[in-house]
């Protein structure tokens, strides 16, 4: 029957539309439908966060272990306060680890790289990394280079 | 002095027609159906002619635009040695802009014009008056199912467009140009966010669908019921619809992505 | 005076700048066929739309069965319209429905009959216009005369008290005209329907009308039975009835004195 065929087509159309939505969500944006991963928060203060943005990656040895949750200004110290979520299964970061703002590639995004320390105590929720290395700002680098060149002359 | 008065008159005229179109929309959509089953049947029929019949053009255009985007993006990104980022380029361009905008433009040309022509012809052949004479509200019976079908179909079509575009781009960049597929996907997944990109693109498509379908059914309903009048109304649907899409896109983009 | 079903009282109506009716009054008697005739462009169709309240007059009132139709609320108006059937000039069949669905539509919309009862009544109505065999066709497959007969079957689907015919004979071949004349007469006599017929086909209209109104230039120039109209000594009426090219209605469209200067070819 004519109307049955139309109904079938319309049903198929809606199914295809929903499939496209799921495909975009799962495959393209990498949205995971499983429960949100358990994380714990740590903070770090930087002299200069230089272009780091929310949701930037946090890595150890280049492996993604978490993301930046928020960036605010510490009004007392005039430093950038970065709060990040670290996956709970990575629970063995020593408290004396250092963290640096790095750039992927020449023009790529900024991300955080953790270098592991040697302490026996591990960071827990609310812990802070004190050894921080700020972003490299091109203008600062150039002026340092110029002044050094001037000194040696 | 006269010019100011003319400007005021033009503004009032415009406001009046916008108001009429608004009342028209409210009267057609927010009136409860008398026979729910019958209304559902009508809606299914319209979903078919508005959505299913637009599917071919949307899928074909989506695939080709994705493929072209991959080719162009690759040739530029290769200069910086970062051809893996082609996936990222493809996904962001399609999800944020091209998906909703191009689909809406195609929709205005394919479905919008045929809605206007169909309603205009029903008016010219007195079918609309005939409904009225039978004590059946033509807004509820003729306009409402068409409007609702349009609003449902366009966002779905835009999702299908983006998905086929990404698949087309994937085929060109990975299978043809030799981009590493792991890097293709991982860079894409890193930079595409479900809420800012996919949902925002979807919301855009919803806005476009309301604007285009509203214009199409209103132009059909208000057209001069002659062959010339229907022709003009159809053209107006496509022109006004496309302009509305582009203007809305600018406003929505500024609102959604403006803080970057 | 006979019992009036419709009374048009001092109605004025203008479309834009153009005055179509000026203080027109006429009555349409109950249970009879009334023909409203007049040259093209005198707003005969407008009269039907005023009666059906698709248009509202600038002043005056239209009483249908004693009710002022223009003062009704929307839902009451829709209720009142269920008692009216209208045969549109173009037929106005719904192009996405078959013949049977077209006729079933008003019943499905307004009655609580089940599918079987509706289909029986559809066939009955189709039989009365002689098109029972065409039930499954689509409107696009019908000839002009058949489409009008189907539209007539649809107009009487709800057994209305009033049927309005908008130019039923225009563009029909002589056989179709004959069929329509017979159908209109039959319907009126068998179901005691009040019929209003708008037409400029003098012969057919006069042959079935019990009551005739002639409109011209925004007013009623003659009203009475067919015989009275034929015997009228009004020059305008005689010109219209006999189809004389020149008379009170001039052959030349009125021109302003400067036309000759403006038209330069």
UniProtKB/TrEMBL annotation, chain A:
Which keywords annotate this record? Answer: Membrane, Transmembrane, Transmembrane helix
Write out the GO MF terms: phospholipid binding; phospholipid transporter activity
**Which residues are in the Mce/MlaD domain?**
39-115
Question: Does the record's keyword annotation contain Transferase?
Answer: no
**Superkingdom classification of source:** Bacteria
Residue ranges spanning the membrane: these are 7-26
What's a Pfam family in this record? MlaD
Q: What is this protein called?
A: Phospholipid/cholesterol/gamma-HCH transport system substrate-binding protein
UniProtKB/TrEMBL annotation, chain B:
Q: Which PANTHER family match?
A: ABC TRANSPORTER PERMEASE PROTEIN-RELATED, PROTEIN TRIGALACTOSYLDIACYLGLYCEROL 1, CHLOROPLASTIC
Q: Which GO terms describe its cellular component?
A: ATP-binding cassette (ABC) transporter complex
Membrane topology value: Multi-pass membrane protein
This entry's Gene Ontology molecular function terms read: phospholipid transporter activity
The protein, known as? Intermembrane phospholipid transport system permease protein MlaE
Q: Show the InterPro entries listed in the entry.
A: ABC_MlaE_roteobac, MlaE_Permease, Permease_MalE
Task: Briefly state the protein's biological role.
Answer: Part of the ABC transporter complex MlaFEDB, which is involved in a phospholipid transport pathway that maintains lipid asymmetry in the outer membrane by retrograde trafficking of phospholipids from the outer membrane to the inner membrane. Probably responsible for the translocation of the substrate across the membrane.
Which Pfam family is one of those matched by this entry?
A: MlaE
Compartments reported by the entry: Cell inner membrane
Note the superkingdom of the native organism. Answer: Bacteria
Q: Where is the signal peptide?
A: none
Q: Summarize subunit and interaction data from the UniProt record for this chain.
A: The complex is composed of two ATP-binding proteins (MlaF), two transmembrane proteins (MlaE), two cytoplasmic solute-binding proteins (MlaB) and six periplasmic solute-binding proteins (MlaD).
Give me the segments passing through the membrane. Answer: 47-71, 147-178, 198-217, 238-257
Automatic annotation (TrEMBL), chain C:
Q: What is this protein called?
A: Phospholipid/cholesterol/gamma-HCH transport system ATP-binding protein
In alphabetical order, the GO MF annotations are: ATP binding; ATP hydrolysis activity
Q: Which SMART domains match?
A: AAA
- Record domain ABC transporter: where: 6-242
Q: Report the PANTHER family cross-referenced here.
A: INTERMEMBRANE PHOSPHOLIPID TRANSPORT SYSTEM ATP-BINDING PROTEIN MLAF, PROTEIN TRIGALACTOSYLDIACYLGLYCEROL 3, CHLOROPLASTIC
Among PROSITE patterns, the record links this protein to: ABC_TRANSPORTER_1, ABC_TRANSPORTER_2
Region annotation (Disordered) ranges: 240-265
- Which SUPFAM superfamilies does this chain map to? P-loop containing nucleoside triphosphate hydrolases
- State if Lyase is listed as a keyword: no
Keyword terms, alphabetized: ATP-binding, Nucleotide-binding, Transport
Q: Which organism is it from?
A: Marinomonas foliarum
Q: What Pfam families does its record include?
A: ABC_tran
Q: Which domain of life is it from?
A: Bacteria
* Keyword Repressor on entry: no
């Amino acid at each position: 029957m004519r109307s049955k065929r139309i109904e079938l087509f319309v049903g198929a159309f809606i199914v295809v539309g929903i499939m496209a939505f799921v495909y975009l969500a799962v495959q393209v944006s990498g949205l995971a439908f499983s429960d949100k991963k358990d994380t714990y928060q740590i903070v770090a203060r930087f002299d200069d966060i230089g272009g780091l943005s929310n949701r930037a990656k946090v890595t150890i040895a280049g492996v993604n272990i978490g993301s930046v949750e928020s960036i605010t200004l510490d009004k007392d110290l005039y430093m950038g306060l970065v709060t990040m979520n670290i996956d709970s299964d990575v629970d063995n970061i020593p408290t004396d680890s250092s963290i640096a703002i790095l750039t992927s590639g020449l023009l790529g995004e900024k991300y955080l790289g953790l270098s592991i320390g040697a302490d026996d105590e591990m960071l827990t929720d609310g812990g802070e990394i004190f050894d921080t290395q700020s972003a490299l700002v091109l203008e600062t680098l150039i002026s340092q280079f110029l002044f050094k060149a001037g000194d040696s002359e | 002095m006269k010019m100011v008065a003319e400007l005021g008159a033009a503004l009032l005229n415009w406001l009046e027609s916008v108001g009429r179109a608004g009342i028209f929309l409210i009267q057609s959509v927010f009136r409860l159906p008398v026979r729910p089953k019958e209304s559902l049947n009508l809606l299914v029929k319209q979903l078919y002619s508005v959505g299913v019949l637009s599917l071919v053009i949307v899928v074909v255009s989506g695939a080709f635009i994705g493929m072209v985007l991959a080719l162009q993006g690759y040739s530029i990104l290769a200069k910086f040695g970062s051809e893996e980022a082609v996936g990222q380029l493809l996904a962001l361009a399609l999800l944020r802009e091209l998906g909703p905008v191009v689909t809406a433009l195609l929709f205005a040309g394919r479905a919008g014009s045929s809605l206007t022509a169909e309603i205009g012809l029903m008016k010219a052949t007195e079918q609309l008056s005939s409904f009225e004479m039978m004590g059946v509200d033509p807004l509820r019976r003729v306009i409402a199912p068409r409007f609702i079908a349009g609003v449902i179909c366009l966002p779905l079509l835009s999702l299908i467009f983006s998905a086929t575009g990404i698949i087309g781009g994937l085929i060109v960049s990975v299978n043809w140009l030799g981009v590493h597929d792991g890097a293709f996907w991982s860079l894409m997944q890193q930079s595409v966010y479900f809420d800012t990109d996919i949902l925002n693109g979807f919301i855009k498509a919803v806005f476009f669908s309301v604007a285009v379908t509203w214009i199409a059914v209103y132009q059909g309903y208000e057209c001069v019921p002659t062959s010339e009048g229907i022709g003009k109304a159809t053209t107006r649907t496509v022109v006004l619809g496309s302009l509305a899409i582009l203007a809305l896109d600018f406003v929505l983009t500024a609102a959604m992505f403006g803080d970057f | 005076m006979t019992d009036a079903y419709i009374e048009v009282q001092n109605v004025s109506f203008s479309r834009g700048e153009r005055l179509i009716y000026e203080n027109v009054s006429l009555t349409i008697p109950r249970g009879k066929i009334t023909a409203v005739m007049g040259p093209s462009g005198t707003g005969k169709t407008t009269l039907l739309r005023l009666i059906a309240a698709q248009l509202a007059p600038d002043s005056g009132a239209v009483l249908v069965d004693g009710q002022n139709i223009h003062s009704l609320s929307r839902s009451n108006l829709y209720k009142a319209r269920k008692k009216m059937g209208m045969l549109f000039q173009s037929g106005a069949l719904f192009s996405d429905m078959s013949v049977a669905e077209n006729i079933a539509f008003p019943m499905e919309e307004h009655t609580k009959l089940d599918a079987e009862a509706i289909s029986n009544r559809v066939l009955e109505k189709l039989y009365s216009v002689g098109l029972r065999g065409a039930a499954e066709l689509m409107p696009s497959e019908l000839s002009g005369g058949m489409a009008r007969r189907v539209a007539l079957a649809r107009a009487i689907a709800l057994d209305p008290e009033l049927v309005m015919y908008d130019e039923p004979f225009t563009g029909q071949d002589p056989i179709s005209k004959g069929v329509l004349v017979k159908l209109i007469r039959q319907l009126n006599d068998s179901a005691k329907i009040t019929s209003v017929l708008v037409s400029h086909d003098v012969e057919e209209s006069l042959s079935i009308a019990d009551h005739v109104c002639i409109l011209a230039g925004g007013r009623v120039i003659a009203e009475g039975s067919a015989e009275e109209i034929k015997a009228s000594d009004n020059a305008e009426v005689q010109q219209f009835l006999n189809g004389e090219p020149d008379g009170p209605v001039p052959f030349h469209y009125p021109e302003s004195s400067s036309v000759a200067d403006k038209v330069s070819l």
